[in-house]
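Practice problem. Given the sequence and the SMILES for adenosine-5'-triphosphate, write out the predicted structure.
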Amino acid sequence: MSEADEQAAATATGREIWIEKYRPQSLDDIHGQEEIVERLQSYIAQDDVPHLLFSGPAGVGKTTAATAIAREIYGEDNWRGNFLELNASDQRGIDVVRDRIKGFARSSFGGDFRIVFLDEADSLTDDAQSALRRTMEQFSDNTRFILSCNYSSKIIDPIQSRCAVFRFSPLSDEAVGGMVREIAAAEDIEVTDAGVDALVYAADGDMRRAINSLQAAATTGDVVDEEAVYAITATARPEEIESMVTDALEGDFARARSTLDTLLTETGMAGGDVIDQLHRSVWEFDLSEREAVRLMERVGEADYRIAEGANEQVQLESLLAALSLDE
Ligand SMILES: Nc1ncnc2c1ncn2[C@@H]1O[C@H](COP(=O)(O)OP(=O)(O)OP(=O)(O)O)[C@@H](O)[C@H]1O
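Answer key:
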């Protein structure tokens, strides 16, 4: 979600959403991503900011880093006027995006350059990216582009070679846990240690998810504990996933299937989430190497089939059945 969308959501619900309230304002305030922050700061210090390409999963600080750069270059009072945020997946297409960039880049202002931040750049077709590349060249005298995407491999080489590429990783448990504790202290909310661990686990490196879950859990009671977090995040406890797998491997298909049923119906998980959690946890379970390898093979197969549109429940039950049957 863009900063503008997040602000709009906050206004619509009539309460401030914490992902906006606690969005880092400066590069120094960004948690984790230390090497990236250091490199970006050195560009700013040398007054030599190139076009930038930020790639990485959702909620790890790409948009935040872009707005922090603008704040640092132009100052709190002027950055908004020098920063154009666009979403490349805009339904109206690349022409609208290009027109807005042209209008913005042409309008005069005092500084050396203005910044165009283009989110979801990997949603552009190759043709649209070629058009974007020409636009980048046309306005490179007075415009710097910051492109954000999930997968840099989906960005055409001529754009990649014109940008300094930064790969944002999922945030570490320490980075997410640290931020959760800071916000809890600022909001005067009690969060137990197990509650922090559960938020970190459910977030899986995505800070946006961790903060949103904290805010949601905080509205359900006085104390944010493990129970509150699992109740609102539609995440299975690691031990539930482990017992489901262990039951299947021990040949107790009926029990494994019943756990799966609970996860899908009561916990409200999507099949893809169960696959993700299995994938994350395979090596943390107390399984022999052979069992872990068998499980991984089945997880890969079910993941592919679900991505291709197969029925999630059938695929997951088939995964458990295969584990129950195999020697
Ligand atoms: N590294 C971080 N340190 C502190 N807060 C963060 C960090 N990353 C994300 N956040 C929090 O999560 C929210 C969303 O982050 P951001 O918009 O930067 O994500 P993104 O990486 O651009 O994701 P997307 O690809 O979905 O747009 C921010 O408002 C901020 O509150």
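Check your answer against the key. The chain has three domains: 3-167, 173-233, 238-325.
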